[in-house]
Amino acid sequence: KALQNEGYTVLSFDFRGFGDSKTVDPVVFWKQHNLLHVRKKGGKLADKIDHKDFKESYVQYFVNDIAAAKAFLDAENDNKNLDSSNVIVIGAGYGATLGAMWIANECRRRKDLAILGGVPMFGDLEGEDIAGAVWLSLQPTIPGKNVPLSMWIRETGKTHKIPMAFIHGKNDDKSATVASNMSSLIKGKAGKKEFEFTGAKEIDGTKLANNKLLQKGLGT
């Protein structure tokens, strides 16, 4: 609400199986990896899902929910309700890790412009729509899978120069180490002016982590 009051368009969503994202179309949902990695109750293809029924191997597919959120923003952009070419991604915990995965993919995809004579024509990188990222308690892994986080951060933050803020609680040593390492990976030891909006930030006086770092009244 604070960001909206400042004139920003804000989209917050629940990953599948969390919060209000538990209703699915059984005909559409129970296919491919969903059928393999989600435990079914009583052998039925239910119309309700819960993250407690997901195997650890399923977490990596949450990245598709981020892609769906961006597709929704693009549709709203086409309806002239917002600007989806100037997006800041905010993620917490392994949700931040999934966000880093998604941005890395966007920096490898090109916009589909048209098909001329059966040949697809491509435009700018999709990653150019990303204006920056804020990572809260960024994790080096996701449940059930080791990931090349350093490669993603180097490619997006250093090569493509997407500004990134790595936020962590004062007493969260693990997240502090990740934040420092990822910031240094982008900026180098001396730091560079071209990366002035990238860096690690400690929230003082708290043992909190992940999205709890967004509570009102904490250090800025």
What tags apply to this protein structure?
single chain, 220 residues, alpha/beta, 7 helices, globular
In short:
With 220 residues, the chain is an alpha/beta fold. The chain has helices at residues 2-5, 26-29, 32-37, 63-78, 94-106, 149-159, 173-187; strands at residues 87-92, 110-116, 119-125, 130-136, 141-142, 145-146, 164-169, 199-203. It contains 7 helices and 8 strands; from the N terminus they run ααααβαβββββαβαβ.
How is this structure best described in words?
This protein is α/β, with parallel strands linked by helices. Helix content is 31%, strand content 19%. It is globular, with a radius of gyration of 19 Å. The chain starts with a helix and ends in a 17-residue tail after the last strand.
Strand-residue proportion: 15-25%
Rounded mean pLDDT is 90
Number of helices: 7
* Quantity of strands, as a count: 8
Radius of gyration: 19 Å
Shape: globular
Q: H/E order of the elements?
A: HHHHEHEEEEEHEHE
Distance between the termini: 17 Å
Q: What structural class do the secondary elements suggest?
A: alpha/beta
Strand order of the largest sheet: 1-4-7-8
Low-confidence stretches: none
Helix content: 25-40%
Largest beta sheet, briefly? 4 strands, parallel
What are the SSEs and their pairings?
Layout: H1 2-5, H2 26-29, H3 32-37, H4 63-78, E1 87-92, H5 94-106, E2 110-116, E3 119-125, E4 130-136, E5 141-142, E6 145-146, H6 149-159, E7 164-169, H7 173-187, E8 199-203
Parallel strand pairs: 1-4, 4-7, 7-8
Antiparallel strand pairs: 2-3, 5-6
